[in-house]
Specification:
This protein is of the alpha+beta class. Helix content is 32%, strand content 26%. The protein has two domains: 151 residues, Peptidoglycan synthesis regulatory factor (PBP3), Domain 2 (Sandwich), CATH 2.60.410.10; 240 residues, Beta-lactamase. A hairpin with a 3-residue loop joins strand 8 and strand 9.
Length: 421
């Protein structure tokens, strides 16, 4: 190329070169642009599931959408994708009683040394029933108190834990609230670590499901809530304590893995449940599911929610192999090339057989050079029918350099030489 340019410079004078430069600039600009444009804004690709089969124990009743629940607020969530499969007033602020202790437990597991010794305060031992019956000055291992907290729902243990971890109950509850917001539970506020009725102590079924999905990822949390009974000892006198798991759901429902019951005069009967069958894990929440003497309403509601989820939904996997990405033309590029796109994702979610997965591409029609490799270019929005699920970012797969004047000059001279020949 350089030898041809030198020949051209010998054949023509500088003034002619200037004229040629002006004449061919337009040609250069056009040649540096791809000759076709692809409109990719809001391209849709739909996927319909076929050959759907159900695998549900014959002992279960036919699962219809559970509209006849006792609970004032209820929600069913896919624990993997966090997709809401059903809700009844699921975003309404409600008191939540001892289901509060789910956050109490997971916060301690993540932020404390479980082998530490907890000394019981006067405030802790004077908490109302249900309680372990600790005495002021007694000492317990923190891990043991977590078992007492989750299996028997002891209120005195919750306060002793809070005071030990954060210095006082107020600070502990503030930290729990901040943790909830980190998880995405923005409509939750903790005032007590045990869930006793208090002003400004509230959550939603949706928030509580999110918190539970998060907690279930912790192996220690799972171990605690699935323990049938647990023995431990007070450290100063050596008195033995035994706690028993009061979660009847664990033995009433196939695949049950927890989680926590609750009751107060304001909250009514509450329960957060979780169950796993094969590759499906569901989390259910029922709040204000009756008052005494109807303590079994919460179990009935929970089973209806779980049956509905396991029967009506199947596991589906989404990944980048299902997406055909276009190329995007780039203006003012140095090599007359399109931009290749890159996307990487893998999602597992539960959907009904009649639901369609819709991918909507959000991309510019054209870009200006320069473009760096791995630069975010746009996104793909995933919809389940018309229900928005999430966005996946799309990145540039290669670098596109900006055209320079010397690139234009070389192209002009080459064109001129070719014309001379």
């Amino acid at each position: 190329m350089k030898s041809n340019i030198l020949i051209a410079r010998k054949k023509i004078g500088s003034s002619i070169l200037l004229l040629l430069f002006l004449f061919y600039t337009a040609t250069c600009h056009v040649s540096m642009m791809p000759q076709a444009f692809v409109t990719v804004n809001q391209l849709e690709k739909k996927v319909t599931l076929k050959n759907f089969t159900q695998d549900v124990p014959e002992t279960e009743e036919s699962a219809q959408e559970p509209n006849n629940l006792y609970a004032k607020s209820a929600l069913l969530m896919d624990a993997v994708s966090k997709r809401v499969l059903f809700e009844k007033n699921g975003y309404e602020v409600m008191p939540m009683a001892s289901t509060t202790k789910i956050m109490t437990c997971i916060y301690v597991l993540e932020n404390s040394d479980l082998d530490q010794i907890v000394t019981v305060s006067s405030n802790a031992c004077n908490q109302p029933k249900v309680r372990l019956g600790m005495k002021e000055g007694e000492q317990y291992i923190l891990k043991d108190l977590l078992y007492a907290l989750m299996l028997e729902s002891y209120n005195d243990c919750a306060v002793a834990i809070a005071e030990h971890v954060s210095g006082d109950v107020f600070a502990f509850c503030e930290e729990m609230t901040n943790k909830a917001k980190d998880i995405g539970a923005y409509d939750t506020n903790f005032v007590t670590p045990n869930g006793l009725d208090a002003k400004d102590h509230y959550t939603t079924a949706y928030d509580l499901a999110l918190i539970t999905c998060y907690a279930l990822k912790n192996p220690q949390f799972l171990e605690i809530i699935n323990t049938p009974n647990y023995d431990f000892y007070e450290k100063t006198k050596g008195n033995k304590k035994t706690v028993y798991n009061r979660d009847a759901f664990l033995t009433q429902y196939e695949g049950a893995i927890g989680v926590k019951t609750g009751f107060t005069a304001n909250a009514g009967y509450c329960f957060v449940g979780a169950a796993k069958r094969e590759d499906k894990t569901l989390v259910s929440v029922v709040l204000a599911s009756g008052w005494p003497p109807n303590k079994n309403y919460k179990w009935e509601d929970t089973k209806k929610l779980m049956n509905y989820g396991f029967t009506e939904y199947q596991t589906t996997k989404l990944n980048q192999d299902q997406i055909m990405l276009p190329q995007i033309p780039v203006k003012n590029n140095a090599k007359s090339e399109y931009l290749n796109l890159s996307i990487s994702f893998e999602e597992q979610l539960l959907i009904k057989p009649e639901e369609q997965i819709v991918y909507k591409m959000n991309l510019p029609q054209v870009l200006n050079a320069p473009v760096k490799k791995n630069q975010k270019i746009g996104s793909i929005s995933i919809y389940l029918d018309s229900e928005y699920y999430k966005d996946i970012p799309i990145y540039s797969g290669n670098e596109v350099e900006e055209v320079k004047y010397e690139d234009c000059l070389e192209l002009i001279l080459l064109k001129f030489v070719n014309n001379l020949n």
